[in-house]
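Dear Dr. V.,

Thank you for agreeing to look over these. As mentioned in my earlier message, I'm a first-year student in the group and I'm still getting used to reading structure tokens, so any feedback on how I've presented them would be very welcome. I ran two proteins. I've put each sequence directly above its structure. The first is here:
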Amino acid sequence: MKLVKTTEAVGQVLCHDITQIIPGVKKDAVFRKGHIITEEDIPVLLSVGKDMIYIWENDETMLHENDAAEILYRMTAGENMHPSEVKEGKIEVIADSDGLLKVDRERLKKVNSFGELMIAARHGNTVVKKGDKLAGTRIIPLVIKKEKMEKASEICSDVPILKILPFTMKKAAVITTGNEVFYGRIKDGFTPVIEKKINEFGVEMVFHETFNDDDKKITKGCLDAVNTGVDIIFCTGGMSVDPDDKTPLAIKNTGADIISYGSPVLPGAMFLLSYYKKDDRIIPICGLPGCAMYNKRTIFDLVLPRLLANDMITSDELALLGEGGFCLNCDVCTFPNCGFGKGW
């Protein structure tokens, strides 16, 4: 790459895209990489502020920004993704399927710490749809040393930074608890909320039972649901510390591994997550606090995509939700396009 006066560049090969900005009209490349500069191009180049311009000189030790972006794309994209057209040295990663986006944050940090190159991605653990943009890649200068790109590539030699997990769970059970519902004193307003939210992920409620505040009956209901072959179980009600709230005890008595009873999320502090193991199956059993019934967004909305993608959640990960786990209950809810739940 060589810097020359624009007025002396006729016949030379342009080594990068030249962007023209017309406010309110367009921002696009007026000339593309590889364009051979003509006499008629000189006034246009000068009009976009290019008194000096880079022309291409062959150097086997260097990579052009477009070629480097291709390498960064391969480091970033996993299965069920495709690249955009290379434009001004940038490639975007686009989803080919719905699912849960996972980001390898450590590898992403290492790549972006190299200098002279970058990968910008969406938050991990978020729901993406086919056609969504997931990330963008480019180098900062116009050219970069091949050796540097080769070293950066080693970070992602075995696995890319991004992957999409499909939503694999299809059959759910809901165990409704509470004397007030069981004896018909109030209408069950919880189950319809759960059913609506899981239906958005293609999950069907195939098992539903209602019990009074009897922990033995609730335990048996959970185990009956497991034996019908459901993929996931949601228990509603009875999640506080009141003496007659027996759902946490009932879930524990199923023999499930309790991951956490309580989460640093508001709304959702009384959430319980456990995993029940039967043969080669692992069935999440969740205790949902009452806030999931009447608040727009809660801990339920944060964990649901991960559970339905069969993405195991640890207690350490739940602890990370303390940062970003405070919902502002905005008058107009924009979730997931907000900070709620972006801490893990």
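The second protein is here, in the same arrangement:
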Amino acid sequence: MSAQEALEVNPQPCEGAAAAPAQARVRAVAPGTTGSWHAQIPEDRAMLRAAAQLTRDIARARPEIYWPDMLGSAALGYAALAGAILVESTPLAVALGLFASIALYRALLFIHEITHMHRDALPGFRFGWNLLVGIPMLIPSFMYEGVHAQHHSRKRYGTIADPEYLPLALMKPWSLPVFALTAILLPPALLIRSAILVPLGVIIPPLRTLVWERASALAINPRYRREKPKGDFARMVFWQELGCSLWAIAVLVASYSYGWRPLIIALSVVSLTAFLNQVRTLVAHLWENEGEEMTLTAQYLDSVNVPPPGFLSPLWAPVGLRFHALHHLLPSMPYHSLTECHRRLSAHLGLESTYEKASYPGLLPLLGRLVRGTMSRR
């Protein structure tokens, strides 16, 4: 749900909502009220209205930015990966592998933009990205499309029905390293999925159902089960699955015939990419909701912005994801406009506003907050 949609659902402001920051109002909730603090936050309609009205003129996805960024990131990533495979110097190979991971990480995260993009916004971009990035990396766009939108749902966000939410701050301390390190296993798991499980599913329907429900979505909620695709989306899934399976089988055949070293290096590079994304996921939200439905303002305050001057944040949270809280206010805003959106809203709403309460200085302070939350649960 976007800021504009939230205003349309409940156009009348709550009493005093426009005047006081949301977190300040939470303290006035009567003792004995059940649920987490998120469940008690009403909408800050001044913020929602500003987000909807001040950013309309920069809401168009610009192909002159999207295409060169995606193509350049993919080209640099693949070139560096080829160098890591071909060079004989181990230090140079490691350096090239690190660079390849960062470049391919940026190229892969355009899947997030594709998920929110209007189908007519950038003709051919979804196809081009899948052909050049999604299928070669075995993460086609269908793994996010139709899934990520549920994370933005007013009724689903932060609940057990949200495929992308776990109350990590309320879990045990060991859960954080386990959560981050399991991402390293994602690339070999994707290779097995596309090369073996998907083809076998053609002749074993129960396996096909299992793979679709449990291993066909970029989700972190273990309770999530994906619904069967329908219509045009099902046809798109078929072609993307076919491309991934043919590519995965070809990679395994080539590795068996000519040696496993290139594949091992490639899997190592992509594992690092997956680990980077998992660390970013750890700090995309505060992860403090206990399962209640939340207002859009509460969702915003449970999410994270790392605005300038955080110079390293574009590396670990590229393609606009450093403004993840702002993204929850304006899900369809193209990534290249988020910095300007943030500037306008900060200037309009002021330093004491609800809007500023979702801003944090960087990755390490956010990780520290998350760790402290889990330590208090021992």
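From my reading of the second output: Residues 231-258 form the longest helix (28 residues). Residues 11-34 have pLDDT under 50 and may be disordered. Does that match how you would interpret it?

Kind regards,
E.
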